[in-house]
Design a protein that fits this description.
Number of strands: 0
InterPro entries: TM_pro_TauE-like, TSUP/Inactive_protease-like
Oligomer: single chain
Order of helices and strands: HHHHHHHHHH
Structural class: mainly alpha
Keywords: Cell membrane, Membrane, Transmembrane, Transmembrane helix
Family: Belongs to the 4-toluene sulfonate uptake permease (TSUP) (TC 2.A.102) family.
Largest sheet: none
Distance between the termini: 23 Å
Subcellular location: Cell membrane; Membrane
Number of helices: 10
Radius of gyration: 17 Å
Strand content: under 5%
Helix content: over 70%
Number of domains: 1
Membrane topology: Multi-pass membrane protein
Amino acid sequence: MDPTAAALGAGALIGLVLGLIGGGGSILATPLLVSVVGIASPHVAIGTGAVAVTLNALAGLTGHARAGRVKWPCAAIFASAGLAGTLIGAEAGKAMDGARLLGLFGLLMVVIGAAMLRPRRGGQDPDVRLTRDTAPRLLPRLVPIGLAVGLLSGFFGIGGGFLIVPGLMLATRMPMANAVATSLVAVAMFGAGTTLSYALSGRVDWAVAALMVAGGVPGAAAGILLGSRLAGQKRLIETGFALVVIAIGARLALGAWGVI
């Protein structure tokens, strides 16, 4: 496949998934860049993917913000705590051998995909707000969960949407629609932190990143539109995508350790 078309297509797919289910685009970035676009270094793939994920998340966030789905105070605290973790995790990830990092990344994909298959439990609070009255209850959950998700996000170079959405729901009991929209604030901030870290190390292919962003902006818009039309099929879409994530992750992990 032509490298330009591959990068545009990869960006469009990432944007589509981010707009549709609020996560998953970032976890596909590294496999797409290595296997489809042809970037040889896993570290460069992670840094380049972080650029695309950040800007594509911002594109998706714009649409959700206009619809009033974003819980901004919760997003700000969660993302701020996670950003600190992202910067620490990115430094640890850069210090690891590329092949081993890719193998661990594949294992993470399998774990996240399996977690997506589990049914969600617990009541929801559509009116949850982070205020002076609710802060003593919400902050002890938002801060540590955000920090932990940020560490994983930085280490593996992913936006962390699959971790952020359930993390926000666990911390606040906000409905999934709000968690998907709110998660994009953290996805963008985590991606920006990873981008900064890898860019300073010279591990970003800016030309490929630009192509992915060019494909990702319309992809995100299409994902938001498609998500609205398929709202009743959300669980079915997530299940199918989870199986794809598990399959790709298993392939990466087995390949990294020479099994296949």
